[in-house]
Backbone:
């Protein structure tokens, strides 16, 4: 299932004044896998995701994606290379229709948007593609609804759908299950399972149940540093990981 | 713009697709075309000048609405581009060049250049800092214009006459000038309408909705904002060229910050982010100004009162009141 | 000679800067805490100046006039807040621009209606009409020294108010984290009204003090308002400390620039440059200063919000 290394992170560093948020982070994500990034609160998971996606500039270190050094590329350039991100705090276009939300992501992919005369609405193929992506993430019935009117769970699905529409090689998912109930979480897990193999995923999550079901590889981030990386078995038996999670419920459900 | 049949995947027109509202805009255009012939009935050629002035500001306000209402960029220095356009006409007139076919495009080009430079720097900032930097640049241009003693300085520069159109038409004739401004304002509005409905416009409006996400799905946001800023600047430059022609006069006061503020007021009044917002705002504001100043010396008080009433009663500008009527 | 000139310019700059601070302090607090763009702030300055002038003329005493004018302006500010301004807090910035612009227009015309279009005379107190010898051979107007004194005194009072009183604590809390301050039980309505009254009072002091030097006339608020905005952007929105530093910077740069730059141009480039480019460059200087500060510190010198 796993192929070569798609994303290689070496010695990534980020300081905020005196605080070191990302401390020489080391990470390798293999093509085709679902790689989970876990860690206690405040470990710096979102900061790392921001550095990987290009939202935050790193102070030191290297990010190699699909064979190319992308450390200094802007966010939109990384998207064009196939690195997309979904947000922990839902960041969709609330006033636009669900269809438009995804259609915009598709518009970024193909052709120039410095087009000033021809109506965008006339691109039926693009909208059909958007509808297909939305059907994939389970929002096929809500195409014309205003995105802001969706339920929280549906908005999270749209959140992933938008990122998916950019046809990424690697999808950075920042807590996709955030704020979801049991049923919605189940739906999201199925969705991510269905994407297995087609899109490589780096998944930041607190929901351990989901992590254990989905992840091929787990990396543990503590105080900005990856202290362990490997299979579930390996992580469970890792002394430092147990220490970091002391007091947390780290038992795998039967 | 034919309406597409409704079907679940066929895109329905939404927030991103401002409509030209042909139902009432075509009759409006008809009225405007007939206006010079109706004017003598209401009191003469004076109204032609007023109408031309309103059209010029409708053009200017629409150009500001493009970046402010549709792009979410609150520029407090837009009058600077009007001034630049006006001064281009003035400077060229001093040099003996007065063909409208050269001078008006030149005004647009020069304004676009200034917008390019100012935008390139200002768009690196956000929020209130963007507002202040655009204001600062406009003030700098204002003071520069004041210092140009060769071009009149603070007193302004009178022009020998209006631009030459050739073709047997004379812009000195108020009726011809009116039709020229009507044509240009209409073309500009149509251009903006097409632009907003095109890919570019969708991107611009989506940037206003959620800039971070647009960057995150692969759009070079800065480039789009800058392009919109330059286009708006060029249109404002055209308005400036026309304004210079209207009174055959160019003055630094055209680019003062209160002029920028006035433009913003027009856009907000008419409806930020509505295609007709700039037009409606300019029309209402200038007509109010005209009507009220006829009643009392202290007409600005009444104007202020009306504006205040609008702010408190019509939260999203006058256009939103109309829109509420035809949205189900 | 040059030393005296520089000293004089520095004092003038200090004097103007301190008065700018009075305006900027109110503006930055309103913007920082209530998140409201108030274009009518200059109108408070104008109304304050007019009230001081009227009260001085009526009572024959500058000090009485100042006190009465300031009190009247504070009352005006409070009334304005209670009737109109408080409805704008929840609105977006553009609506605030429109609304406060409308108020600006109405204030201008109301003042014109009451006092006419001609500038109104406001005389400094007789005892301070003459110059004072600060250094051997160096004379400086006593009145300007008074302005500096009043400015410093008010700044000190303001500092005391903000650091030592309950109101001040709420102001500081509100400036750094509005939601938190609300959650901790700050009585928002009273606080906002009090802030407006305070801001209006400060504007009136500035207006009244500057009145004898600059003209008291309709529209006097607009030109100084824009300077005040530049000051608070430089200083950092929501920070009174920033407003002070920003105001002093702008005051000194603007005042000294207007004299020294044309002089420098004249010396280096000839009289024509001094006449043409000199004033233009001097006027632009504070904007260049603002751009420079923002380049180095994008949120101003003392950013308040987290």
Residues:
């Amino acid at each position: 299932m796993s192929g070569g290394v798609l994303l290689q992170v070496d010695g990534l560093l980020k300081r905020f004044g005196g605080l070191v948020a990302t401390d020489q982070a080391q990470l390798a994500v293999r093509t085709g896998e679902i790689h989970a990034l876990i860690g206690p609160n405040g470990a710096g998971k979102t900061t790392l995701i921001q550095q990987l996606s290009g939202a935050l500039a790193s102070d030191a270190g290297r990010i190699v994606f699909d064979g190319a050094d992308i450390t200094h590329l802007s966010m939109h350039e990384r998207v064009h290379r196939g690195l997309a991100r979904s947000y922990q705090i839902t960041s969709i276009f609330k006033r636009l229709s669900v269809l438009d939300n995804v259609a915009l992501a598709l518009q970024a992919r193909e052709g120039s948007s410095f087009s000033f005369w021809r109506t965008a609405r006339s691109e039926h193929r693009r909208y059909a593609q958007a509808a297909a992506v939305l059907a994939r993430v389970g929002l096929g019935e809500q195409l014309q609804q205003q995105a802001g009117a969706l339920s929280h769970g549906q908005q999270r699905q749209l959140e992933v759908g938008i990122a998916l529409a950019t046809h990424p090689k690697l999808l950075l998912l920042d807590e996709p299950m955030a704020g979801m109930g049991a049923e919605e979480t189940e739906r999201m897990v199925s969705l991510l399972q269905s994407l297995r193999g087609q899109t490589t995923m780096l998944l930041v999550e607190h929901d351990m149940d989901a992590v254990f079901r989905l992840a091929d590889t787990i990396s543990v981030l503590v105080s900005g540093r990856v202290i362990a990386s490997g299979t579930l078995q390996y992580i469970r038996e890792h002394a430092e990981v147990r220490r970091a999670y002391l007091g947390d419920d780290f038992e795998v459900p039967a | 713009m034919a309406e597409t049949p409704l079907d679940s995947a066929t895109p329905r027109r939404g927030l991103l697709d401002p409509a030209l509202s042909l139902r009432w805009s075509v009759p409006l255009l008809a009225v405007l075309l007939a206006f010079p012939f109706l004017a003598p009935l209401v009191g003469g050629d004076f109204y032609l000048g007023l109408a031309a002035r309103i059209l010029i500001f409708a053009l200017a306000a629409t150009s500001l609405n493009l970046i402010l209402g549709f792009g979410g960029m609150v520029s407090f220095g837009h009058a600077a581009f009007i001034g630049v356009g006006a001064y281009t006409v003035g400077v060229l007139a001093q040099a003996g060049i007065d063909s409208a076919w050269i001078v008006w495009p030149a005004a647009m080009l020069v304004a676009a250049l200034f917008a390019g430079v100012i935008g390139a720097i200002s768009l690196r900032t956000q929020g209130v800092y963007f507002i202040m930097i655009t204001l600062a640049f406009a003030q700098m241009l204002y003071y520069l214009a004041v210092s140009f003693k060769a071009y009149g300085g603070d007193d302004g520069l009178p022009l020998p006459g209006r631009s030459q159109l050739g073709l047997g038409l004379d812009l000195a004739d108020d009726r011809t000038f009116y039709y020229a401004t009507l044509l240009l304002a209409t073309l500009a509005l149509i251009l903006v309408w097409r632009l907003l409905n095109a890919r570019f416009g969708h991107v611009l409006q989506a940037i206003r909705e959620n800039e971070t996400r647009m960057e995150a799905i692969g759009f070079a946001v800065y480039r789009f904002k800058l392009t919109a800023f330059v286009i708006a600047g060029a249109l404002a430059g055209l308005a400036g060229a026309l304004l210079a022609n209207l009174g055959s006069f160019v003055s630094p006061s055209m680019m003062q910050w209160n002029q920028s503020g006035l433009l913003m007021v027009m856009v907000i009044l008419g409806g930020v982010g509505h295609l007709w917002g700039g037009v409606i705002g300019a029309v209402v504001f200038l007509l109010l100004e005209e009507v009220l100043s006829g009643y009392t010396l202290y007409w600005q008080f009444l104007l202020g009162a009306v504006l205040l009433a609008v702010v408190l009663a019509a939260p999203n500008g006058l256009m939103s009141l109309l829109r509420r009527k035809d949205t189900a | 000679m040059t030393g005296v000139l520089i000293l004089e310019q520095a004092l003038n700059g200090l004097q103007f800067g301190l008065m700018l601070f009075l305006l900027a302090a109110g503006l930055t607090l309103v913007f920082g805490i209530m998140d409201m763009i108030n274009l009518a702030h200059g109108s408070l300055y104008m109304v304050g100046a007019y009230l001081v002038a009227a009260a001085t003329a009526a009572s024959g005493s500058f000090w009485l006039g100042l006190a009465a004018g300031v009190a009247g302006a504070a009352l005006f500010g409070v009334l304005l807040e209670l009737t109109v301004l408080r409805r704008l807090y929840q609105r977006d910035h553009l609506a605030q621009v429109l609304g406060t612009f409308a108020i600006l227009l109405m204030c201008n015309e109301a003042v014109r209606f009451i006092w006419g279009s001609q500038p109104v005379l406001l005389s400094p107190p007789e005892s301070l009409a003459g110059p004072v010898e600060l250094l051997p051979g160096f004379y400086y107007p006593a009145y300007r020294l008074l302005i500096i004194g009043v400015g410093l005194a008010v700044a000190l009072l303001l500092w005391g108010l903000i650091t030592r009183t309950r109101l001040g604590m709420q102001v500081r809390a509100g400036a750094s984290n509005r939601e938190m301050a609300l959650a901790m039980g700050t009585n928002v309505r009273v606080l906002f009204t009090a802030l407006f009254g305070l801001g209006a009072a400060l504007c009136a002091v500035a207006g009244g003090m500057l009145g004898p030097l600059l003209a008291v006339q309709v529209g006097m608020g607009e030109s100084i308002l824009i300077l005040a905005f530049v000051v608070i952007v430089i200083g950092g929105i929501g920070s009174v400390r920033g407003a002070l530093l920003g105001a002093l910077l702008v005051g000194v740069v603007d005042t000294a620039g207007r004299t020294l730059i044309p002089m420098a141009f004249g010396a280096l480039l000839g009289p024509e440059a001094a006449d043409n480019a000199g004033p233009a460059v001097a006027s632009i200087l504070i904007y260049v200063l603002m751009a420079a500060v923002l380049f180095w510190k994008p949120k101003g010198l003392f950013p308040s919000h987290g």
Chains A and C do not touch (no CB pair under 8 Å). Residues 88 and 174 of chain A are 5 Å apart (CA to CA).
